[in-house]
Known about the structure:
By secondary structure, the chain is an all-alpha fold. The protein has 8 helices and no strands.
Amino acid sequence: MSQTEKEKDGLLILDYQSGNKMALAALVKRWHKKFCTKAFYIVKDADEAKDVAQDSWRIIIDKLETIREPQSFSGWAMRIVHTKSVDVLRKRQKELKGDNSLKFDSVEEHEPYDEKTALKKKLYNAILELPTNQQQIIKLFYTEELSLNEISKLLNVKAGTVKSRLFHAREKLKIILKNNNYEN
């Protein structure tokens, strides 16, 4: 973003802080689509991305009166959008854990026992034994099919950190499954 763009944002914010409510409308017009795009990049769902953008605007508007460096609006606001987007992913992950446990229960009750069902259950239980950050990497890499670079940007960590966590998660899964007497 150019210095001129940052200055425009800064002037709009100062104008809003001095009582001009139309400045907020101009700021929303400049940024709303960018917020939706950023959120969609992370959550991969258009409706959820719009909700994230809307929730982000609520926070931004509440705190806009107190912003100390109006020229830093872009980074500050995008960080809010990023955080809200990650919150959506965390909520999904919690729901997924609940859905998976119900899925395994229903598989056990309604379907004949087979090796594939047993393997899924063992793998799921082994993943639950991993630390949360490794569970998250496993989910994003295998379930969401994100690349290491996409996960890196999403979690705001280096790609090497993502790669390391994925490696360690796989190694722990091997150990957990081996210790539970399941070897391939």
